[in-house]
Structure formats: C-alpha cells, structure tokens
Amino acid sequence: MDRFNLKNKIILITGGSGFFGKQIIKALLEKKAKVINLDEKSCGILNKNYFFYKTNILNESELNVIYKKIINKFNKINVIINNAAIDYKPNQKNTLKKGFFETTIEKWNQEIAVGLTGSFLVTKIFSKNMIKNKKGIILNIASDLSVIAPDERLYKHLNSHKPVTYSVIKHGIVGFTKYLAAYFASYNIRVNSLSPGGIFNNQDKKFVKKIRELIPLNRMAKKNEYKEIIQFLCSDASSYITGQNILIDGGRSII
Questions:
Q1: C-alpha angle with apex 212: 210 to 218, nearest 5 degrees?
Q2: What is the pTM of this model?
C-alpha cells in the first residue's frame, strides 16, 4: 500500500494563487489529488483536478455558501491547508518602509485578520465535514519566523522592516496548530504546521547575501524544495504526527 498516495483526495487550500501557494498546489496535483483553491484570484493552473472558488476568507456567510457548494460537488474534504497571508518581498515597491512605531492599527488589523482570523474561520467551517467523517488532516503554513525573530539587519540597506504582524501571525499559527491538534484528536483529525525558511525568488542581491550568512547550508531554499514534505504531511505516511511545527529552514533557527 502506498501511504503517500493522494489520488482523488479532496484538498482545500487558502491563498493558493501566491508564490508558495502555487508550489503547494502543483505538489498535490503531482500526486493526483483534487485541489480546491480559495483565493481572490486564480493562479492560472490548467489541470482537470484543479478547482477555483473566488473567496473572501474573512466573510463567514460567503464561506458557508462555498462550503455547501464544495460538499455538494465533492461529498467530502480530506485536507485543509491554511496558507493565506499578507507578506512583502524585500525588493518590492510595497515593502513596509515603516517600523514598529509607525505600524497603523488598520494595517495591524488587516494583516492579522487574513493570517489568523481567516485560518480560524476556514477551519471552523470546513472541518465540519471531517468531524462528520471522523477523519482528516489540517496543515497550517507558518514560517521559520514562527520560532525566531526577524533579523532587521537583513532589511537595513533597503530602509525597510519585516512587519511586526508577520511574527505575531506565524507564532500564533503554531499555537493554533497545537490547540486544534489536541481538540480534534478524538475525531481522528491530525493538525500540523509547516515552517519553511525563505525561498529564493530573485530577491535583492544584498539581501540574499546577508541571509545566506545566517543559514548553515549557506543558501535559501530552492523553488519546489518543500514539495515532498507537503505531500508527506497531507498523506497517511504522516499518520502518527500531530501538533507539530515542522521546521525546514536550512538550519537557520538552530544557531
């Protein structure tokens, strides 16, 4: 029996149209899963097993409507991946130029709403089918910054900062994971979080040089280098793992 088998598994992902979300979707489609992307726009993937629902994950009534549509079409949900978040590349024009004291309450509320409240609402609504079937997997996407603080020296030459909300959200995701793992254990629902390190995506050259010096493997992750761990955590191969935060960061968090 292939315990890594995902064929015909119904996997729901939020924020699947972003850089990392698209990698997650491709990893799951490779294993023949049926992947449902909840996002504000589709990611352009053309595959018979890819499905898209335009969604505001902060709108509970909208989520309830989409939940009914998905259950009517697919009958079940095997895996929920909470991936949606707001982040900023260090070489983008919209990188946060202001530090902690300049962070507005509007930005604080918006980013925490997407990263934490959205995960709560999606889990609350879509896990109902898992409870009914007494089986399921929830995978929350965190970050290496769920266990360490951002190193502001990485952004100094860009006159930029990593938003305080990002650390709060990713630490919160780990707490959310542990809570759910204990709460859902009696329903045979496993819950874990994945904390990837930075993925190379043509970031500012000086930033890349600086971050490499903080990573024992002396490089950022390559695109699709998290593919197999995602497949593993969404499959029966990880059947005795729950409540864990899986760190894959080239060793950055150990020193």
A1: 155
A2: 0.96
